[in-house]
Structures are given as C-alpha cells and as structure tokens.
Amino acid sequence: MDTLKIMQTAIRGRWAVAAIFLANGFLTGAWAPQIPVVLTRLDISKFTLGLLILLFGAGAVTAMTWCGHLISRHGSRSVLRWFGLIGSFGLLVVALAPNVPLAAIAMFIFGASIGGMDVAMNANAVTVERRLSRAIMSSSHGFWSLGGFAGGALGGFAIQNYGHLAHAAVVTALAFAVIAVAVRYLIAEGKPPQGSSGITGHRKFALPGNPLVYLVGLMALLTMISEGAVLDWAALYLQQELGTDLAVAGLAYAAFSGVMAVMRFVGDGVRNRFGAVTTLRVSALVAAAGMLVAGLAPSPWLAISAFAFCGFGIANMVPILFSAGGNQEGMSPGTGMSVVTTMGYSGILVAPSAIGFIAEHSSFSPIFVALSGLLVVVFLMAGLAHRAEFAPDAAPAE
C-alpha cells in the first residue's frame, strides 16, 4: 500500500513538473512577439535591443550559477516554487518598463527568473525520473516547446488587437495560475548521503581535463545559437525584411516551437530506433536546410515553413548533446553536464545580442544563412556524441 501511494505521488509530481515546463515555455514564447514592440515603444536601435536581450541572458546565467547551490541546500521543489511564482510576473514587468534603464533592470530580473526556474524544474524532473524509474525528460521538453508554441502563436494576435500590456497581463495570470496549482504536487528529493558526489552534493566544481567534453559543449553552443536566433529575431526579420504584420510575424517562432514539441514527444523512440549519432547527423542536416531556406525566403509564409522545418531538426539535437556530455568517460555526470550546458546556454542567452549588432549593420537574411553553416559543422562533428548511445539520459530544457 505504501508503494502504491509513493507511485501515485510520483505520477502527480510528474504531471506537476510537466505543467511547470509548459508554463516556462509559454512565458518564453510570449516574449518573442513582444520584442518588436520593445524596439518601437522605447524607440531604440537593434543594437540597443540586442544589449537588452544580453541582460536577459546575464540574468539567466547569474541565476543558473546560484540555483545549483540553492537546490543543494533547500531542494528543487522549494527553489522551483519561488522561482516559478516570481517568474510568472517577469514579462509583465518588462512590458511596464517606460524607459531603457528600467527596461534593462526588468530584462535582468525576467532572465534571472526564467533561468532559475529552468534549472530547478529540470532538477525536479530528474527526481521524478528516479522515483518512477523511467525517463520523462524528453516529453518534459515537449511540454516546454508546446508552451512556447502557444505563447508565440497567440502573442502576435493578442498584441495587435488588444495591446502589449493586455497581452502581458493575460500571460502573467495564466502562468501564475498554472504554476500555483502545480507547485502543490511537486515531489521532493531525499537528502543526499554525506560525501555524495551527486548533483546535489557540496563538492567544489573543477574543470575536467578531457577535451572531448568541450567539443561536445561546442556543438551544443552552435546548436543553441540557432535556437536563440529564431526566438529573438525571427519575428523582427519577418516584419522588417519580408513585410508582414505582427500577427503573422509571431507565427515564425510558434511554428518552430510547435514542430519541436511534436518531435520531442517522439524523440526517445526515434533515438532508440536509429541511435544517437545517426539521429544527431540527420537532425543537423534538416535544421541546416531549414535555416538556409528561411534566410533566402522571398515570402513570409515560406520563411515560416522553413523555420518549422528547422525546428523539426533542432528538436532532439540538444538533448542528445547534453546526454553525451553527462556520460563522458572518467568524470561524473554532473561535471560533464555542467560544462556542456554552460557552453550551450551561452549560445541561446548571449549570442543573440551579437546578432542584433550585426543586423544593425547589414540585415537578418545573411545571418540566418550563416547560421545554417554552423549547423553543418555540428553534422560534421556528430560522431563525437557517441557517448549518448550508451545512456540516453535526461537533459535540461533550452
């Protein structure tokens, strides 16, 4: 009877953390159609907007750095509860910022809340996996992408018809409601034994000497640069260079994220059937082709379709790379994972600001073409992810 109760609690915890992933993706997706509004509302250049996005990344990285320590002391459930509830207000704070200095502070806070929430929800998902003795991370990523699809698809329409403040207020209310209910059913991990070397231990971090883990991290970096570019700049690309309205422009990230969601729900089966390296190679080629067509597209609808095709490829690239990083020979999973995730997240959080600087002096079209070349590099390096063949482990959400 006790075993049955424990299993029922774990199952509720599984759906609770899935709801948190959904809410986090929804907040992130809802931010994408707000980006062109920030540009015009504050009357700033693309370079300044890129710096604001850089502050979002700085806030996220800062929170991620401290979140592991907080989780080791208080547990993922407690940390996720606070980051989640505070994070639900992040978009509204940005939308209310009346000038650049306040917008900069708001972006840092928004990024910190989303970043801390991301680490904590992944740590809690690992706890659920151990309790259930089966993987749930790939489908959790799917819920994140599903939330991003909903946030991006509805955001442009809502902003165009009701205004950016009304949109941010509704997003905040929905996210807060989902998170407030879900945190009641999250499960807590047990206390680690003294001297544990697990992810919740208190050992000091040391850089590994194996160069292979850094090459896997480089692949994650190149992949997540492309993902961050679609999140932060696809809507502006469609609006400014392909001449579409905001409602249609918001569909670029929505299509990208929606296809990613579908592929992540079936990703474990595909990877088990064809192997991690083969899946990564094919995925990288598909993503590169989609990004190339998006950069050369003469019409917004072709670009949207190309971004969706790119999402089809990118969907399972990062989980495979994180798994490879966490299964490196001669080092603990936490050490390898920390290197690869840190390098990867710098791509999705920091690199888009550099894209804003480049776009200020050229245009977005050649940028997306160049990004397709980075994905080809991942294709050529795919064999280095062979460690993922042996233990298709869980990975943090991007």
Kindly summarize this structure in a few lines.
The chain has helices spanning 2-31, 35-41, 46-74, 76-87, 90-96, 100-132, 137-162, 164-182, 211-240, 246-249, 251-274, 276-296, 300-314, 317-326, 333-349, 351-361, 364-381.
Task: Give an overview of the whole structure.
The chain crosses the membrane at residues 15-35, 47-67, 79-97, 103-121, 142-159, 165-187, 212-234, 246-266, 278-297, 303-324, 336-358, 364-385. Residues 1-390 form the Major facilitator superfamily (MFS) profile domain. This is Major facilitator superfamily MFS_1. With 398 residues, the protein is mostly helical. It folds into 2 domains: 1-189, Growth Hormone, Chain: A, CATH 1.20.1250; 210-390, MFS general substrate transporter like domains (Growth Hormone, Chain: A). The protein is 79% helix and 0% strand. The chain contains 17 helices and no strands. Helix 11 packs parallel to helix 13, helix 12 packs antiparallel against helix 13 and helix 12 (276-296) runs antiparallel to helix 17. The longest helix has 33 residues, at 100-132. The radius of gyration is 20 Å and the shape is globular.
